[in-house]
Amino acid sequence: MVLDDLGSSLRSTLDDLRGKSRISEEDVDEVVTQIQRSLLQADVDTGLVMDLSDAIRERALDEEPPAGTTARDHVLRIVYEELVDLVGESTEVPLEEQTILLAGLQGSGKTTTAAKMAWWFSKKGLRPAVIQTDTFRPGAYDQGKEMAERAEVDFYGDPDADDPVQIARDGMEATAEADVRIVDTAGRHALEEGLIGEIEAIAAAVEPDRNLLVLDAAIGQGAKEQAQRFDEAIGIDGVAIAKLDGTAKGGGALTAVNETDSTIAFLGTGETVKDIERFEPSGFISRLLG
Ligand code: GDP
């Protein structure tokens, strides 16, 4: 990580430590306060911010800088390591045959993310297919189909069917030639029992290799209950954060990551199928602090 990634006020505070050979408690407090301010503004959970602050404070004051390391570089390294620990490493997404199930509330960005991920896999040389099982939201079928066409990937759905589990089963058969199947599911406005039961049944039918929770970057602390419920139902292996091109920085999603003991896999940064990035800790950290 370069200092530029840290946000301007934190950067200048760290630069003030440049000439110092020892760091005082006040110096560390100033650094920690600035990090706290940025992270809370980015919707990171207060408890997570406090844990991070304690870890930075303790290490910066207790650990001796290695020989030849300036006080500033020592603190910078600790800050960076603790931030990486907070955001986590990227979810492993092997380039091999697999079925990925997407879960999340209505409007979170699932259908868009399904097409984007399919596009991403196709660019990696695999043959992906999207299976649309959302029979609840009017337009989900058309939207999924249209986006899959734009991504130039296979698509299966049935606008006349009303049993999502049967669509999932049929979709697995119809896309037998694909390497990667991405199964889109219905989301509703709240976490109803019906929704959870439905996704459990779809998971049982398609036997996914990984389940990703799609979250709107603006979710804030609402991420917690959602993540818990989906994790209890199907087990969450990773998170995709959509709509990071807006003002929201996605810090709320870290609550879901923490709750489900998972990691972040993908970031959505726009409305077209190409607006997808693999999560990578340092870029996300600079987004949170910037
Ligand atoms: P679903 O109900 O979970 O399937 O959500 P959709 O995929 O339909 O997304 C809901 C809305 O958010 C749609 O208008 C999408 O175009 C929009 N959307 C999804 N992902 C992104 C993104 O990364 N950036 C932006 N700007 N809009 C997005």
Descriptive account of the structure:
There is one protein chain. This protein has 290 residues and is of the alpha/beta class. It is built from eleven helices and eight strands. Strand 5, helix 9 and strand 6 form a beta-alpha-beta unit. The structure holds guanosine-5'-diphosphate. It is found in: Cytoplasm. Part of the signal recognition particle protein translocation system, which is composed of SRP and FtsY. Archaeal SRP consists of a 7S RNA molecule of 300 nucleotides and two protein subunits: SRP54 and SRP19. One of its GO terms (molecular function) is GTP binding. It catalyses: GTP + H2O = GDP + phosphate + H(+).
Ions, cofactors and other ligands present here are: guanosine-5'-diphosphate
Radius of gyration: 21 Å
Q: How many helices?
A: 11
Gross morphology is elongated
In terms of DSSP E residues, the strand content is: 5-15%
Strand order of the largest sheet: 3-2-4-1-5-6-7-8
Percent helix, as a range, is 40-55%
Class by SSE composition: alpha/beta
Number of strands: 8
H/E series, N to C?
Answer: HHHHEHEHEHEHEHEHEEH
Keywords: Cytoplasm, GTP-binding, Hydrolase, Nucleotide-binding, Ribonucleoprotein, RNA-binding, Signal recognition particle
Organism: Halodesulfurarchaeum formicicum
Subunit structure: Part of the signal recognition particle protein translocation system, which is composed of SRP and FtsY. Archaeal SRP consists of a 7S RNA molecule of 300 nucleotides and two protein subunits: SRP54 and SRP19.
Subcellular location: Cytoplasm
